Amino acid sequence: MHSVGSNCNYILDVGGTLIPKTKDQIIDPLFEKWFLEFECNHNVYLVTGSSRDICVNRIGIDVFMGAKRVYCQHGNVVYEGDIEVYRNPWRAPSEVYSFLESEIRKSKFPNKKGGHIIDKPGYIRFTLLGSDASDDEKCDYRVWDNQAGERDKIVRRFYKRFPHLHAEVNNKSSIGVHIYISLPNKDKSQVLNNIEGKVKYYGDKIYWGGNDYSTHQKIMKHGIGNTYMVDDYKHTWELLKNETSVSKSKG
Fold first, then answer.
1. Cα–Cα distance for residue pair 102/16, rounded to 1 Å
2. Running DSSP on this structure, what letter comes out for residue 15?
3. CB under 8 Å to 242, separation ≥6 — which residues?
4. Per residue in 162-196, pLDDT tens?
5. Would residue 122 count as lying in a domain?
6. Is residue 251 situated within a structural domain?
7. Residue (of 78, 69, 2) closest to 38 by Cα position
8. Are 161 and 192 members of one domain?
9. What is the pLDDT of residues 14-72, one digit of tens each?
10. Which residues touch 243 (CB under 8 Å, ≥6 apart)?
11. How many domains is the chain built from?
12. Residues 117 and 225 both lie in one domain
């Protein structure tokens, strides 16, 4: 039960905003305790590119359940508490898979791994390198792709073939190797579709090419609130302290 002390809606990214940026890190226990009280007194929505299970493992079940809604898989699977209330049913047509398979065969990158085409709820995660690659191998591919421009060329060919769909290169991640394919506007900005009133959005990738940027753009375009690019969860914590009567003490 939420005892809401503000009409504003607080929307927060998870990775790099509520938890450390490092892969597989979990929420700081002191911040978790404070944030749980914040959730009790405010309208809090969480949005993440991860699945429910990964999200719960990183922020804890109490924080997950304390949000009014959690938008997983870039907003394509939505939970209220532990109940799934929405799942994007979209699946790409067979022609898209044929196109991607032909691009794998044509790729000149010499060290391909397995797992090139991964179906996710509402989108495809595609990589020429392969999802089974290590972080070092992903960095090697990034260096190669920065010279070859392979992913950008694939996206241009994709739009010529499928102008009604959306394809995006995650260029801003240090180990990003993917192309995301979906229907238009089926990204993290979906969190705004069913929220009434003013919003404040907190994310660590509010820049062109970052996966928080589309949400920032929609908020600014419609004049429905403010966005805050944070450095890490400690920065988020400091900003949220100014929004609440919850104790300012960390310990």
1. 35
2. B
3. none
4. 999 999 887 545 556 889 999 998 989 999 998 99
5. yes
6. no
7. 2
8. no
9. 999 999 977 678 999 999 999 999 999 999 999 999 999 999 999 999 999 999 999 99
10. 6, 8, 10, 42, 200
11. 2
12. no
- Domain end point (choices 132, 161, 182): 182
Q: How far is CA 189 from the centre of its chain?
A: 9
Query: What Å distances lie between residue 174 and 127, 138, 141, 170, CA to CA?
Result: 15, 9, 11, 9
**DSSP secondary structure code for residue 75 in this structure:** G
CATH of the domain at 199: 3.40.50.1000
Q: Are residues 29 and 74 in the same domain?
A: yes
* Residue 216 DSSP SS3: helix
| Main-chain dihedrals φ then ψ at residue 203, nearest 5 degrees | -155, 160
In single-letter form, the type of residue at position 111 comes to: N
Is residue 250 situated within a structural domain?
no
Give the span between the Cα atoms of 214 and 149, in whole angstroms: 23
DSSP 140-198: HHHHHHHHH-HHHHHHHHHHHH-TTSEEEE-TTSTT---EEEESTT-SGGGGGTT--S-
Q: 18-52 burial by CB neighbour count: b if 16+ within 10 A, else e?
A: bbbeeeeeebbeebbebbeebbebbbbbbbbbbeb
